[in-house]
Structures are given as structure tokens and as C-alpha cells.
Amino acid sequence: MTPLATQSPPASPLDTANAVMGRFRWTICALVFFATTINYLDRAVISLLKPYLETEFHWNAGDYANIEIAFKLAYAVGMVGAGRIIDKLGTKLGYALSTALWSIAAMGHALVSSTFGFGIARGFLGITEAGNFPAAIKTTAEWFPQRERALATGIFNSGSNVGAIVAPLTVPLIAETIGWKWAFIITGALGFIWLVLWMVYYETPAKHARLSKAEFDYINADIPAGLPTEGVTEEKPKASWATLLGFRQTWAFVIGKFLTDPVWWFYLFWLPDFLGKQYNLKGTAIALPVAAVYILSSIGSVGGGYLPLGFIKRGMPAFQARKRAMLIIACCVFPIVFAQWLGQLNMWLAVLVIGIAAAAHQAWSANIFTTVSDMFPKRTVGSVTGIGGMAGGLGGIALTALVQKRLFVHFESIGQIDKAYYIMFFICGAAYLLAWVLMFTLVPRMEPIKLDGDE
Hints:
Blueprint: H1 13-16, H2 23-57, H3 61-89, H4 91-108, H5 115-129, H6 132-143, H7 146-178, H8 180-201, H9 213-219, H10 241-244, H11 248-279, H12 287-313, H13 318-333, H14 339-345, H15 347-375, H16 381-413, H17 417-442
Helix pairs in contact: 2-4, 2-6, 2-7, 2-8, 2-11, 3-4, 3-5, 3-16, 4-5, 4-6, 4-8, 6-7, 6-16, 7-8, 7-12, 7-15, 11-15, 11-16, 11-17, 12-13, 12-15, 13-15, 13-17, 14-15, 16-17
Subcellular location: Membrane
Membrane topology: Multi-pass membrane protein
Transmembrane segments: 24-41, 93-112, 182-202, 251-271, 291-312, 324-342, 348-369, 381-402, 422-443
């Protein structure tokens, strides 16, 4: 163990250190970005292969919804377990294990020969992909000071949009030229390339042989008052789930994820279906509008990280800056309720308003994830992120089972699928404002958590 963690920071690290360094932490951010890109590419493949798989396996909307539920249920269960495992194993080994397993699961779809088999394959993919965000948020908490975390989170989280952009530009082409099975094999294999880079380049700050003292001090310089600086050593005891669930801060994060994650699931799994059924787009014709939505999402993800940073630079406390930014972002989602009406005028108007809402979701994610590292010790970040991720997955299951499955099957059976989308877009528009009210009613001000063993 390097002695860096025991040395005192310079007098003004935030004013002097960042001008001459940063390559290590932004390299780490790039690695997490690419992992998130691959993670979302792998999960998005099935939505673009849906027309091919419907033909081969004779699926209806209910069959697809059941397969989607299998993924979300496994993802929800995997999230809480993955967060705990990553806090135990550490980011390097935990992230590597998760990526290797989900890559195997993604490639395994090519071996499936039945609808039930797809449910099993999606479940395995869901439980293994769950490790990405707890590991990514924990990595960000380890390598970035508080003021930069929303920006770093926004950058790596934009990988989810890049994955969703790459998918429609490549998956239908692969399916049409060499078959749908190869789409699963090729995209799944990318994870092993990333895995080599991660094992070669990643290490925690306290163990990084080439990290300067100045950058180490910069990373730890603005830890909120009341939180320990143990995040690089992992030597203190872990907090149990029961302990973490005893805090209002945990429940604020859980509620926010439960209400808003399902909206993103809806975009990811149903956007190609929406474009196909509302505007008769097929195959590669879907690629451009889907890519446009996720390009806007990428802009929103990075912009969502910059928004609170601008408030912080004007002297606003970090937590209040995130609170204000999240209210602005929630308001930006609401125009999606008009997507169907605008789409009657021109398809691209619907694509634009959906893209803005998707961008706002990613901006929201960049900030809601960062509230965890704002309030909790770094040694618990993976666990709390996992609990919230499980809540988001359960919210996605509830939306699919109670709303989408019944809604879409019913209205599709009577030839009025457009009404199902009217209802869904209204739900999407209202979810974020409700989440903001509930979250910041529970935690109206910055209240750092201190656990047993903290000074």
C-alpha cells in the first residue's frame, strides 16, 4: 500500500492541482464509458432483432413483454447482489467479473432455439449486466472529487446512448447479411476486448504506482464534511443492507430510481416497435431515427453533468446545485406527452420530442447517481447504487406487467395501438416531476451519512 493515503493534502489543491494533471482519472472515465457502451449495445440487440425473431418464433406483444420482464427481474435481483459483491471485491475485479459474464450471456443468445430459451438467456444477461452501474459509480467516486462526479458520470453514462446508437446502425445490417445469431455473437465478443484493457490499465488511486501525490490530494480534496476519506483503502467494515435501508437518503434514491428507470427501459425496448407500428419503418430504415434519439441522449448526459457544475462554480453547494439541476431536467421531460400529436404532423417532430425526453433522462441519471456519493461513504456506494438499481428494475417490471403488457396487447388486438402510446407518453412525462418532489421531500438538504467506524 502506498503511503499517499496518510499524507496531508496541500493547502489549495482545487486551485492548483487540476491544471497540470488529470490524465489518469479521465482515462479511467473513458474505460467506464466504453464498458457502458458495450453494456447497452448488448441489451439493445434484441429490440432491433424483434421483427426477425417474431417471424422465426411467432411472438406476439405478450411474448416479447414476458422476455423483457425476464431481463428486468434478473437485472433487479442482480443489481442488489452486484453492488454488494463489487463493494466486497473492489472495482477492478468486480467490474471485470461482471463484464466477462455478461459478454458470455450476450453471445449465448445465438444458441437459443425457443421462446422459453430467450427468457432464460435474457435472465442470465440481466443478472450479469447489473454489475455495470454499481461498478461505474464506485469507480467515479474513487477517482473524482465531488465537484466533478456529475460530469464524469454524465460522460460515462453517455456510453449507454452510444451503445444504443451503434446498435441500430449495425445490428439490422448484420442480421440481414449473415443472420441474427451473428448479431449476438459479434456484439457480445466486444466485452472481452474491453476486459483486457481494464485489467491492464485500471487500479484504485491508493494502489496506482504512477499517480502523483498532487492528483491523489485533488481527488480527495472536497469530500463533504462528515464523510470519511477511506474510499481508496477499503479497510473499514461494510454496512449491511438493513443498515443502509434505515436512512432516508437511501429511500430518496430508491424512489427516484423506481419512478424514472422504467421510462428509460420503455425507450430502449419499445422505441423501434413504436417507429415500426406508427410509421411503418422496417429493418435498416429504423436506424436513423433511433440513432437520432440516442445522439440527443448523449448530449443530455454530458450536459446534465455540466449543469450542476455551473451552479457550483457560482458558489452554490453541490447538493443544492444537483437539486436545482434535477428540477430543470424533470421539466424538460414533460413535453413528451405531446409526442403523438406532433408525430401526426411529421414523424421527425415525434422523434425530436422523444429525443429531448431521453436526453433529459440521461441528464437526470448523471445527477441522481451522484447524490449517492454526495451523501454516503465511498465504501457503501456500490451497495446503495445496487439497491437503487434493484428498485429501478422492479419499477420497470411493474410498468411492463401492469401497464405495457396489458395496454399494448389490448390496444393492438383492437387495432388502436396509438392509444397505448398516448398513455405511455403521459406516464413518461409525469414520472420525473413526481420523483423530484418525493426525493427532496425526504432529503431537503445535504445530510452526509456516518456509519460505524467513521471518524
